[in-house]
Design a protein that fits this description.
Length: 263
């Protein structure tokens, strides 16, 4: 049995993590964390998640010491929990998006003391998409135009999505390009495509859970690689599988590729 704590435990992702972890049978949710002013503070996390009482109230702090903390929160909150995990020797699974380059440096430093797995998308399918897209980009070269289009629900704050950014990073690394090759949208009278550039486009539509497509197009043919998430459980299942794997790892920085044995 693996003791875990979950941030944002009363949110959309948090409640599914609580529910699926409880149903899994291999986890014990010992911490369920929310903002101090959240209306569900002190209520049982299992009841909020719809699986009945589990004996763990929603709190604003973390008194128990779990083996893994799963963090799907906001950048400021994630920074706080990274310090907490490092100070207390707790492995940390980071799914928070919108982190800055300074945050990445802090994660690198933290990984010297604890096991940290960071992924902008916990879907196992997205990890495979990144690997395939990188291979395709490398093999086809600059004769093929590359465009990345992502779509999410109308409430998503950041753009492009962290998943789209990771997809672009995989392609750039495979082709030896820097981030100056990225073009974020196009407009104006002179917006012709430049050879070797990678286009990034974001859609915010209704209740779209997540759709990411990498286009590789030449004159006469087009290859499209698409991943579609139909509900948030795919991210929760991926996160829990990763948490099981992470619980037994030594200090270091890991990715979903490591969980899948693709490193």
């Amino acid at each position: 049995m693996i003791d875990i704590a979950i941030t944002g435990a009363a949110g959309r992702m948090g409640t599914r993590l609580v529910a699926l972890a409880t149903q899994d049978g291999g986890f014990r949710v010992v911490g369920a964390i929310e903002k101090p002013d959240h209306p569900n503070i002190a209520r049982d996390a299992g009841e909020i998640a719809g699986v009945g009482p589990i004996g763990t109230p929603i709190t604003h702090d973390l008194k128990p010491t779990p083996r893994v903390l799963i963090d799907f929160s906001a950048p400021a909150s994630s920074r706080h929990w990274l310090k907490t995990c490092r100070d207390r020797g707790i492995a940390m699974l980071i799914g928070t998006t919108g982190l800055q380059w300074g945050d990445q440096a802090a994660i690198d430093q933290g990984a010297a003391d604890i096991a940290i797995l960071q992924a902008t998308n916990m879907s196992l399918g997205v990890a495979v998409l990144n690997r395939i897209a990188a291979q395709v980009a490398k093999q086809l070269g600059d004769d093929y135009d590359i465009e990345i289009v992502e779509a999410h629900h109308r409430f998503k704050k950041d753009a492009p999505s962290g998943t789209a950014d990771s997809l672009a990073a995989a392609i750039l690394k495979a082709t030896g390009k820097g981030r100056d090759a990225l073009v974020y949208g196009r407009h104006g009278d002179e917006a012709l495509r430049e050879r070797g550039k990678v286009g990034m486009h974001s859609l915010r539509v209704g209740d779209e859970v997540g759709r990411h497509t990498a286009y590789f197009a030449a004159l006469g043919e087009r290859l499209e690689l698409t991943h579609v998430a139909t509900n948030r459980d795919t991210f929760a299942h991926g996160a829990l599988r990763a948490a099981k794997w992470l619980a037994d790892q030594k200090p270091g920085r890991y990715t979903i590729d490591d969980v899948l044995g693709m490193s």
